[in-house]
């Protein structure tokens, strides 16, 4: 009876060991076949990094400008001027621009201020005047002659009726200024103007105008060609 129990115990131990080894083997196979999240994530990131590196290596910042069928801009080869002016074709089957077009496409150097300011050697520059005072007198005389070509009047009003104009003239006479009444057609109507003058100098006319305004008489300065 004891032998049977001993034999059953040994057999149970052996079966337990076999079952344990089988379970351990199954777990090992399962672990090796099923991807581990952290390990697979690391491998995936490495692949993505390699693909991103290749993409960045071939990246062209102007690719959105090419459209669906991008055609990269190629630089035409320099023309071979030694052999009869023949032009060697550029790479990628792109025909180079003609020599005239290349010559005209070159930017023209801007004219600098120093170049523009440089006087022409053929054109003699203006020499400084030996008599600056004489030139000043000539300029003043020219301005005076231009100013003397006009006469100046101080107009104390323009009226529709001659009686109003005469009343204004009498008022000026009482203030000590002699004036005259003149007629003129304006917009199809006769206008009677009361004026004091003429004056040969503008300053004299402006001085009288200031006096009239100080006396309460509205006036205007009128210039007439001599």
From TrEMBL:
The signal sequence is: none
Occurrences of domain SPOR (ranges): 146-224
Q: Which UniProt keywords apply?
A: Membrane, Transmembrane, Transmembrane helix
Q: Which Pfam families match?
A: SPOR (PF05036)
Q: Where is this region: Disordered?
A: 43-73, 94-134
Q: Where is the composition biased (Low complexity)?
A: 94-128
Give start-end positions of Basic and acidic residues composition bias: 44-60
- GO BP field: cytokinetic process
Q: Which GO terms describe its molecular function?
A: peptidoglycan binding
| Classification via SUPFAM superfamilies | Sporulation related repeat
Q: Which residues cross the membrane?
A: 7-31
Spell out the PROSITE patterns in the cross-references: SPOR
Q: Single GO cellular component annotation?
A: cell septum
Record's protein name: SPOR domain-containing protein
User: What organism does this protein naturally occur in?
Assistant: Comamonas antarctica
């Amino acid at each position: 009876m004891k032998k049977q129990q001993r034999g059953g115990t040994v057999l149970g131990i052996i079966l337990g060991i076999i079952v344990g080894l089988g379970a351990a083997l199954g777990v090992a196979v399962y672990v090796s076949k099923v991807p581990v999240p952290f390990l697979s994530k690391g491998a995936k990131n490495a692949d993505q990094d390699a693909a991103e590196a290749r993409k960045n290596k071939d990246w062209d910042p102007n690719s959105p400008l090419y459209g669906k069928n991008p055609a990269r801009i190629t630089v035409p080869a320099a023309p071979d001027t030694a052999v009869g002016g023949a032009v060697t074709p550029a790479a990628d089957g792109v025909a180079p621009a003609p020599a005239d077009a290349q010559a005209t496409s070159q930017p023209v150097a801007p004219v600098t201020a120093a170049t523009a300011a440089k006087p022409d050697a053929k054109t003699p520059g203006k020499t400084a005047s030996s008599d600056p005072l004489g030139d000043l007198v000539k300029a003043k005389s020219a301005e005076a002659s231009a100013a003397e070509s006009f006469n100046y009047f101080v107009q104390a009003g323009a009226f529709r009726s001659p009686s109003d104009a005469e009343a204004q003239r009498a008022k000026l006479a009482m203030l000590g200024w002699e004036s005259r009444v003149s007629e003129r057609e304006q917009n199809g109507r006769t206008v009677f103007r009361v004026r004091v003058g003429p004056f040969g100098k503008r300053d004299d006319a402006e001085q009288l105008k200031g006096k009239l305004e100080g006396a309460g008489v509205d006036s205007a300065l009128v210039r007439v060609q001599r």
